[in-house]
Amino acid sequence: MRRRVGAGIIAGSAAGLIMAAAMMGYMHWRGESVRTNPDLIAAMWMGPEVADGRLTLATLVGFMTHMATSALMGVIAVPFIYELPPWRTMLAAFAYALGSYPVAFATVMSWADPVMVERTGLVPMAAAHALFGIVLGAVYLWLRRGRE
User: Are 135 and 15 in contact (CB under 8 A)?
Assistant: First the structure.
């Protein structure tokens, strides 16, 4: 069981890093600070005034919140993808990540962090969550291969 949880933490963390990098690159391409997304996440804890794109404690708080959530999402995914064939592991991880996005935004995020919901585009965030699912599945399969 510890190995499964560890694989979930690693896969979720890797997926979270790739997702964060993609969204930070997207924000840069859009002409905003690369720190905008971590700051928007930190606004949930620290208030909307921290979502200014400057490198501050809020940026670290937002990034660490994202990474902790990513690791948790990786652990939660394990029972759903543990012993599936590779193609179903990828499909399940993709569907899980993409499916969790509208649920989280429609419920928790609209209440806890409305500034993020207002300032983040639906399509880019959906694409980032889809990327999260792809990386989650791929890394988990890679780790699982080492055990077989």
Answer: yes
Distance of alpha carbon 73 from the chain centroid: 8
C-alpha to C-alpha distance for 48 and 148, rounded to whole angstroms: 48
pLDDT digits (tens, 9 = 90+) for 42-85: 999 999 999 999 999 999 999 999 999 999 999 999 988 888 99
Which is it for the CA torsion 75, 9, 93, 108, positive or negative?
positive
How far from 119 is each of 12, 44, 114, 124, CA to CA, in Å? Answer: 25, 13, 9, 11
The residue ranges of every structural domain in the chain are 2-145
Q: What is the mean pLDDT of the chain?
A: 91
Q: What is each CA distance from 83 to 5, 89, 147, in whole angstroms? A: 14, 8, 12
User: Counting Cβ atoms within 10 Å, is residue 35 exposed (0-12), middle (13-18) or buried (19+)?
Assistant: buried
Amino acid in the structure at residue 103? V
Check whether 146 has a pLDDT greater than 70.
Answer: no
